[in-house]
């Protein structure tokens, strides 16, 4: 399933609608819905914030695979931005020292693991795989 | 869809608190001026943008000796709060607990 997303937060609603359609058509487990929604939203919002000069759409691809869902987002006119360069958040800090913001990529790593990054010809591509947990045997 | 309703003890949230909804929630949190409960019974989803709204309000109120109490928290939302370390910063009451 492919979508061409405008560079605005209102598009999150279309991302969720597409994810719901894919899950219904492919009988994907409901337990993957939250990780896919959150990781896709956070990466999309990051792309908007790190490339405010960008004008073109962001290409989203959602694909049901054996064992889970693969998601990729591509921004076709962007400076390199590797999420792995963002330092980890210290979630153990006391309230007075916690800063507002910076939790997005931390949550993505917690929920879906590694995010793969590729930059070529000014195109930033981020992808991840949300996997079903092995069934208890 | 996201909804925020003021009630006697604080705010009641419903639906999806994502990056598009966070700016709608923020004025309601900014209007809180004393210790408040945030009822999350009908909150289906929260992302980092929504967590930012909660943390900002909690930091401001805690500096005044008050703070937010998160109540009726579903297991999905509780997991996100845990991954964020918010369960160490806020009082979190799971759905079904009357405490």
How much strand of chain B? 35-45%
Helix percentage range of chain B? 25-40%
Count every beta strand of chain A, where a strand is a DSSP E run of 2 or more residues.
Answer: 5
Strand order of the largest sheet of chain B: 1-2-3-4-5
CATH topology assignment of chain A: Heat Shock Protein 90
Gyration radius from CA atoms of chain A, angstroms: 16 Å
Question: How many strand units of chain B?
Answer: 5
Q: Give the uncertain stretches of chain A in residue-range form.
A: none
The CATH class designation of chain A is Alpha Beta
Total of DSSP H or I helical runs spanning 4+ residues of chain A? 3
**Major β-sheet annotation of chain B:** 5 strands, mixed
CATH structural architecture of chain A? 2-Layer Sandwich
Under CATH, the homologous superfamily of chain B reads STAS domain
List strands and helices in order, with pairings.
The complex is a heterodimer of chains A (137) and B (99).
Chain A: E1 2-5, H1 12-26, H2 33-50, E2 58-65, E3 68-75, H3 104-112, E4 116-120, E5 123-131
Antiparallel strand pairs in A: 1-2, 2-3, 3-5, 4-5
Chain B: E1 2-7, E2 10-17, H1 22-30, E3 36-46, H2 48-63, E4 68-73, H3 75-83, E5 91-94
């Amino acid at each position: 399933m492919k979508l061409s997303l405008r560079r605005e937060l209102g598009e999150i609603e279309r991302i969720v609608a597409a994810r719901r359609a894919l899950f219904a058509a492919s009988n994907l487990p409901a337990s993957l819905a939250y990780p896919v929604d959150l990781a896709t939203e956070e990466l999309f919002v990051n792309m908007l914030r790190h490339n405010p000069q960008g004008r073109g759409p962001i290409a989203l691809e959602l694909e049901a695979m054996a064992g889970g869902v693969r998601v990729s987002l591509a921004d076709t006119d962007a400076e390199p931005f590797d999420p792995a360069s963002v330092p980890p958040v210290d979630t153990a800090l006391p309230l007075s020292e916690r800063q507002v913001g910076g939790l997005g990529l931390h949550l993505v790593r917690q929920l879906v693991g590694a995010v793969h990054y590729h930059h070529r010809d000014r195109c930033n591509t981020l992808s991840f795989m949300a996997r079903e947990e092995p069934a208890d045997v | 869809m996201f909804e925020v309703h003021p009630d006697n003890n604080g705010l009641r949230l419903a639906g999806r608190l994502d990056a598009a909804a966070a700016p709608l929630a923020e004025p309601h949190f900014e209007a809180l001026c004393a210790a408040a409960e945030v009822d999350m019974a009908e909150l289906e989803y929260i992302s980092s943008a929504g967590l930012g709204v909660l943390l900002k309000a909690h930091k401001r109120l805690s500096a005044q000796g008050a703070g937010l109490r998160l109540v009726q928290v579903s297991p999905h939302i509780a997991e996100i709060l845990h991954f964020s370390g918010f369960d160490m910063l806020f009082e979190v009451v799971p759905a079904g607990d009357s405490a």
